[in-house]
Design goal:
Blueprint: E1 2-9, H1 17-32, E2 39-50, E3 58-67, H2 73-78, E4 88-90, E5 111-113, H3 117-128, E6 134-136, H4 142-155, H5 187-197, H6 217-230, E7 234-236, E8 240-246, E9 252-259, E10 262-267, E11 271-273, H7 280-288, E12 293-295, E13 298-307, H8 308-316, E14 333-335, E15 341-348, E16 352-355, E17 365-368, E18 377-386, H9 398-414, E19 420-424, H10 425-430, E20 448-450, H11 459-473, E21 485-490, E22 497-499, E23 513-515, H12 526-547
Parallel strand pairs: 5-6, 5-11, 6-7, 11-23, 19-20
Antiparallel strand pairs: 1-3, 1-4, 2-3, 8-9, 9-10, 12-22, 13-18, 13-21, 14-15, 15-18, 16-17, 19-21
Amino acid sequence: MLEITGITASLAQGRGPHSSLAVGLSDAVRLLGCLPHEIASIELHRKSIDARQKKHVHFILSIRISFVDGVDEEQMLAHVPTSERHRVRCINVEDPRFPAPVPHKPAHAPIVVGAGCAGLFCALALAEAGLEPLLIERGDDASHRSEAIERFYATGELDEESNIQFGAGGAGTFSDGKLTTGTKNPYHRLILETFHAAGAPQNILWDAKPHIGSDILPRVVDNIVARIRELGGEVRFRTRLEGIERAQDGSVRAITVSSNHGCERIVCNHLVLACGHSARDVFEMLEASNFTLARKTFAMGVRIEHLQSSIDVAQYGPAAGHPTLGAAPYKLVTHLPSGRSVFSFCMCPGGTVVAAASETGGVVTNGASENARAGRNANAALLVNVYPEDLPGTSALAGIELQRTCEHRAFDMGGGRYRAPAQLVGDFLEGRPSMCGGAIEPTYPLGVTWTSLDDALPTHIIASLREGIPLLDRKLHGFNEADAILTGVETRSSSPLTVLRDRSCTALGAPGIFPCGEGSGYAGGIMSAATDGLRVAQALIDSLGASQP
């Protein structure tokens, strides 16, 4: 198979997969000197937007082609002009696969705690291997979880077990559903194909910045859960981990869970902890049980909202609004003289700011957008690093306590009922409280209280944001728009701790227990969490082979 990169397509030519493939086929025939009928198959592999020149925004395509029997790929390569040889290469593509069924099942099914992306993909891989795992999740399935969130938005009554953080699919289910990652891993293709098979749009297979959307993700998650059950796995919702029973050597022997049916002890020898970064009670339990935890760098800040049309113009110039481009994303970072960074995270084009609290009396923001990204506003987390040395004491849970303190403070500043404190960017930069909103209407669903955000976050974060926003405006014109909105607080962008594990993915001093995913400190988004879930599943399967006589 040959891969051809760097194919240029106009906005009209790249409007869909068929027209994109037509451009790719034409370029392949020209480069290789072959005839169209000699090509057996052609696949759109990657499609990205090139907006470096605002007057010439276009698409860059990559395709993969295979030939009919009798056509020599090396001879095809020989036809490629020397000046364009770097664009064509031979590749060997192996279909990504889940682990093969294991020959011997353990006496007790492995248990996976948490049905976020890491837990879902770990449980799915174990189920594909014939291990019939038990997946437990403290929150609801996707449909009941949606009802709980809508009830919270309508009444201000928070369900601490089923919300934006907890439930099937984890925090990613009610987000933009971005599937981008800064790393390369053979698992990525398998994850994308699994999402597509479960109902995600086909374009995630080639889009350079794929996303699913909060309107489609719940159905995708439900279908993955159904697949786990179809393979013999068991999935229990509204089931909460209460305790881990360990033998003298530290290995797991059983867990205790609670549900609507009461408390239950479940025997197990293999336990995956994929409980997510907001399962604070689990981390407290782990520290009390002498697991090895460590602080790690995390980030906190606010959500920033602009008009999406302004972001489109800043990114695409005269091409802004072209139907093939959609709503423009951005990803920004600036490094300050202090050594800290101010950066955007989880940018949601055409989206909304969501109320992501999971504890009574705390305000937490996050962002979401539907697949069409058709909302009036753009929003993103605007964050500043928090280093371990910024925290008091020695406890690995100090970051959680800082998060909680800021969330409670934001709740009080909002005036209760989970209203969020908010401030206009112009007022924030001038150091004065906002008395009312401007031209941009905030999308936070429970309402905002106009105020000053200075007391909502640590001093170094507020100072860094004030210094960083004008610098980011140099990279994206209009970022420091006076009427842009800052809504507080964004505290759950990542886990503030790590549950330490060895190279076999086993928790230190705890045989059979596998910390996994974002909550345990090994991921930072949907793709990396799903990847770690697959990695841990394989490690668990490998450990079964090592334990065989």
